[in-house]
Amino acid sequence: MSANTAGSGSASCRFAHYFVICGIDNETGLEPDALAGENFDQSPLKRTFKSKVLAHYPENIDWSPFDQDAVNMLCMPKGLSFRTQRDDRAPHFHSFLITREDGSRTYGFVHTFYEEVTSPQICSAMQTLLQMHHAEHTSCASSSASSSSSRGRGGCGCASSSYDAEHDTLYVSKALCLLTSMPFMHACRRFLAQLHCAVTALQPPPLPLESYIYNVLYEVPLPPPGRSLKFHGVYEPIVCQRPGPAELPLADYPLGETFCLLGVENLVQLFTCVLLEMQVLLYSQDYQRLMVVAEGITTLLFPFQWQHVYVPILPASLLHFLDAPVPYLMGLRSKEGTDRSKLELPQEANLCFVDIDNHCIDLPEDFPQFPNKAEFIQELSEVLLHYGLTPEQGLTSPPPSATQPRGLGSQLQQVSLRELEEDGRNGNLPADASDVLELLQGNATLERLQALARRTGVKVAGLEALVAGQQTPGQEGVAGKSGVEEEELRNTKLNVQLREVFAARFATMFADYEAFVIQNSPDLESWLTNREQMHNFDKVTDFACRRESTQMFATFIDNKIMSQWEEKEPLLRVFDGRLQKARLYNVRAPRLRSSVYQRCTFLKESTQATEQRFTKIDHTAIHPHLLDMKIGQGRYQQGFFPTLQADVLTSGPPNHKGERERGKLPKCMQEARSLGKNTRHPKLSDLSPAVIAQTNCKFVEGLLKECRMKTKRMLVDKMGGEAVELGHGEATITGLEENTLIASMCDLLERIWSHGLQIKQGKSALWSHLMHYQAREEKLEQQAGSPVSNGQERRKSEPSLGLPALRVSLVQDMRHIQHMGEIMTDVGRARAWIRLSLEKKLLSQHLRQLLANTALTKKLYKRYAFLRCEEEKEQFLFHLLSLNAVDYFCFTSVFTTIMIPYRVVIIPIKKLSNAMTTSNPWVCVSGELGDSGIMQIPKNVLEMTFDCQNLGKLTTLQLGHDNAGLLAKWLVDCVMVRNEITGHTYRFPCGRWLGKGVDDGSLERVLIGELMVPCSEEEMARGSKTPPPQRSPSQLRRISITSLTGRGNKPTAEQIQEALSEAVNNTVKHFQKPEKERGSLTVLLCGEGGLVGVLEQVFHHGFRTARLFQKTVFIWDFIERAVMYMESADQMGNLQETAEPLQLPSSTLCRYANAINNTSRSLGKDGKFQLLVCLGARDQLLSTWLPLLAECPEATRMYEETALLRDRDAVSSLISALQMLHDFPITLEGSITKGVEL
């Protein structure tokens, strides 16, 4: 191939693979197309009939076999359509896509026009059908009560669609199609339009049509990467170009039209749905609009690729594909006069419905927003405005590029012929040699001689003289281009800039993705063997955590890992190259979790290569020329596409290189095949029952595999987070990721319940099934006169808990959801029910119970449905059962505003006969989302229920009384609180007295809660349960110093220092988590092993005397004496002479201690010490108070020399540990700080 002229043999990659003609077969006549779904009650002129492939050239290509059924179905998706001279017969263009089982893609470009019917048999058959339809319509109208009005309407109808074979002309649709391996839409559209123009023109084309078709099939090559190519149509040259290796891949569909059809905001929302692999259905009357939007959206996914079912044009005969329970992107043609409400879809719970013609989009529920959406839309809008397009939705007309001229007039033909003649690089004559041109066109022999001279390289002096003075090759500029080419260049530049904005957004979001790719396999074979058991990506951005669970993202990471052993996948190579270039020029994207929006900084530069390729053509294909054809065949007849001579089109020129490389797949086909290698694409050409059944079996297998992978991911990640609580490694799951995984599981269950539905009822198939089950159970309940037991009561009440049993009931859980006024849709109710069942560890049990009613399942579902495949159903339920091994709070954490009933049971220590008190007790329950407020407990009542807005996970409980009556002392063992919807039960240990003159004199205690593991008959908690959170302090730690020091299990100084370091580290880790995932800080401060408990051990260590004057001494007594000393010393001026650490913080310690003593709360001495530690941690004062207390003379009197407080090195170590808390903003719950203003 030279720099200016290019040829293409059969072995190298050609521009087009096949040329196809579809239309009516005069031999078979009219065959009704029952699969097209048309109404047979309408006029025959408006019905559709079966089309056929009349001819295709060449017959077959080994590495790209011709699929006749699929091509015919997509060339004419509506089948044949008829018109008369009174109807509009304007030609129209559309394109389609075929993805084969091996992943290779073939693009089809179709020009459909109307041709006069010349067969008398077909004209007669159409007239007979019309007469039969008219007779039937008239008889029906006369038998009706409103016969007169019906006849009037019938008359109008027949007049508008009448046909008389003697007086009317009948036309039928015919399609010309080019099949290519790459989406050169504009070039193919122009070539086909010129072919049709040559048929309808008054004068015959310069050469027979076979010459142009042969040329585009065999002599026009694909442009090399980064180069442009010019080839010739019938009347004017056509230019196409191909991006270079470092540029974004080829995308020839006009993105400007996509944005105009939907609007910027709608398109970004649609893009988000596709990015998250939801089910997307495009809806339009125009096939080309379906293709433009589908290709435009998938083009913007770079560097990712759509991995699921992709059918931009779904023929009417394949509507059952909408039942596919997998993510898909399909396009469905809407019928004229029908609206969205009349369209019955098998499933809508996870469906994004795009009504292109009405410029609107229906989004699924639980729809996330694209990061920095407002700034992103603003940047896209600026690009569109720069090219004169309005970014708002609702535009009724596409950009100029979307509308191709309907035909070339005589003036355009003359201009095109003149340009064609002046192109001397292929041996054409200049315009001033019109006499020679006329001679050559009129003499076939001279024409053949001229063509032979060109092909053999023989120079003819006379012809060389004629072409002297022409423009040198490759120097035609933009100014010399036609208006169509200028418009094409403008659209190409717009495409590039819009795609660059999207690519830059991904480059920002995934700037550091390589740092989180886990590559722990020594070779490719071992990695492939363990692929499904490995987690290949560590962290993602907030939005991308939902992306991580998609197949697109997984494939992208897989390609990255495989690139260390194999050649990089093309999209990955381009994306990594862009990241490396950005780092090289220090234009680096922010960190992954940054919210800073970065605009694309090289929009102008991005179009330079494209504009340069259009300005200077790199290659020019061989010009169409005369072929060795039989004389007399294919004679020109205006308005009719001729019968082509098959012998000259079935094979191209001989190529010996192709013989040597026979069987080797061309590189361009390898690239095309790689585009869809992981795509699940249904086979379009075989609609036999066996193939449909096989397809449904694959769907069932895919659903089961997806369920296995999702439950495994949920289980492994959740257990990985729990391992952190046990001290093993770091967590890999966040709260946002957990919510994403659960939302993905909800989508999967909806798709499973939507598969094989008999009749769709509502948008949620799962909720519809549940409603049928509830109606049946309630009917049985009414007949029995008592509540029907819905399964065994798995959770039993225990005497030690003092709580009544919570009955396990599927129907009762449904009623809880139905009473939630916040949820307005069936899809929302189904997802809430799934979350509730998962949180209660009843999802598998409930679904098994639901499916146990086989009669109901058979009534609702077809035989091939997933829910009627017994083996797969059992495996599915088993996978869901594995989720019971971990704890989820997916219902509690999502529905934060609902009202929830809580049950409180107070359990006293009955053996000491202090089960009741004559005082007036009260309780206040607090959680991560709020508190219940103080609630009075009726006297002599140990159990109460109350309704309160969702408190979230319960953390603390305040319990107290007013010390009234004779029996004002109360010894409480614990308090139990249960969420009556989720069944979560919390135990708040106490083991202390409440009353004046007993214990530490407390009338109010703050208790720390622990989640109880539910008991079950299957003992599911045994061996695989979630570790309980930090607990309340044990009874031993909360008793006085006297009791503790009297025991023989006192901790050593080293153990206490280690415990303090651990408590501080746990607090630091708490703040390093994302804010929404931190949980309760109160548990870390006041729970078992928390900061308060460890500091109590510090002050307990080395206490000198157990009793002073036979009175129990608490830590708070030491604090008070130290404060009294500091205040008296300050008044006497002695404090100024003490060590430096005692000067400044003494006033704050005194002020805090006095404020706690003066509070209106009836706290005991241990409660006051706890409050002092919490306030000191909040205000970053603990590290200054500790040396102050250690140097106080009271410490010398009350502690032994071996005590921690008297060891300077130990105190310094403790101070260093406490100073680590200064970097974090500690916020305390209101239950801790209530009544203290500091």
UniProtKB/TrEMBL annotation:
GO terms for cellular component: membrane. Residues 736-896, 1082-1231 form the RUN domain. SMART domains: dDENN (SM00801), DENN (SM00799), RUN (SM00593), uDENN (SM00800). Residues 33-567 form the UDENN domain. GO terms for molecular function: guanyl-nucleotide exchange factor activity; small GTPase binding. It is found in: Membrane. Its main location: membrane. Residues 900-1008 form the PLAT domain. Pfam families: DENN, PLAT, RUN, uDENN. This is UDENN domain-containing protein. The gene is DENND5B.
